[in-house]
Amino acid sequence: METEEQVAKGLTNASVVSKYREAANIVNRALQALVPQCQAGADISTLCSNGDQLIEQGLATVFTSAPIEKGIAIPTCISVNNVCAHYSPLPEESSTLQPGDLIKIELGAHIDGYIANAATSLVVGASAETPITGNKADVVLAAYNAIQAALRLIKPGSSNLEVTEVFNKIAADYQCNVLEGVLSHEIKQHVIDGNHVIIGKESFDQHVEEFKFGANEAYIIDIFISTGEGKPKEAETRTTVFQRALDMTYNLKLKSSRNFLTEVNRRFPTLLFSLRSFADQRNARVGVSECLNHNMLYSFPVITEKPGDLVAQFKVTVLILETGTIVITPLIFNPELCQTEKTVTDEAVKALLATQMATVAVAKPKKAKKNKKKKKAAAQEGESKEEENKAEETKAE
């Protein structure tokens, strides 16, 4: 846990930036490993468990010299076609991927409460030989271009409402709609839903306060675009994703519920988790029920558009540093797989998309060296590692 002084410094503290970056590297590698597994016939619950395992395996290899809280920030969710988000099914309630399914993969990790989340969309079986066409191509490209434009706006002096405006201009060009009710948040240590908010689409009863982005801020940018009306509903599917409500306490009556809450407090004290993560499913289900009855958990139900509609999603984690903006979870998607006659028409938005995305390398904290040989070896190792990271990010984008 950071000291109060370190937290106050935020992204001016090299240790904080390092934790964000390391969590992001783990998320990127997990997502890159999971994407090829999403083939026709693959079981969704198994894929979600694989994603969680990849995150946990990655976390086990970093910051091992001292006790530090590490874990999943959002359990792996794989939502198909008109299902928008939070589909992380139990094994007995799962389904399999089919050729042509449009899927959204979302996952995240944290180190000492510093969060990196990412999401991508893909079509099962798509390739250069079998490209994405029709309304699938339209909705995926709309979401992809929307988040690319947003990333170029997220810098000191720009406003959240500018991002909302460009989201909706691009969606309209592809004859799609931004999903209502979706918010992108500023993030801080252990906080995934900070006060600075970007709304995907304003409506009659959904508005947010305008603000200007500033240096030393971190955000998770989330965009959902639909071929339908963009008005999702809560599905009848079982909710499996939850978060501990830290401001609520209650002496649970059932022993199984108390055991469940003890495990939640130990493994997932502040961020999201899935029922899949508990070995004793009976205790977990009883515990969830009693905790919900006493407002000790927040639930994240599965949400869907109408049957036949298609929804695409992209999510990235962004740090606004004093030296520039960096996307620490770069997009993992190849837009050349999509074929459509629709395109962005607004000249200002086209100019924005044509702008080079400015990113910066984050220097690691310097350590004292005992002698010149060790200093030289460490420098060479650092240069090699930096080149690896740059190559990996370039490949991902």
From TrEMBL:
Comp. bias (Basic and acidic residues): 387-397
Superkingdom in the source lineage: Eukaryota
Domain Peptidase M24: 19-191
Compositional bias (Basic residues): 364-377
CDD domains: PA2G4-like
Stored InterPro entries: Creatinase/aminopeptidase-like, PA2G4, PA2G4/ARX1, Pept_M24, Pept_M24_MAP, WH-like_DNA-bd_sf, WH_DNA-bd_sf
Start and end residues of each stretch annotated as Disordered: 364-397
Membership in a protein family: Belongs to the peptidase M24 family.
Protein's UniProt name: Peptidase M24 domain-containing protein
Organism in which the protein naturally occurs: Blepharisma stoltei
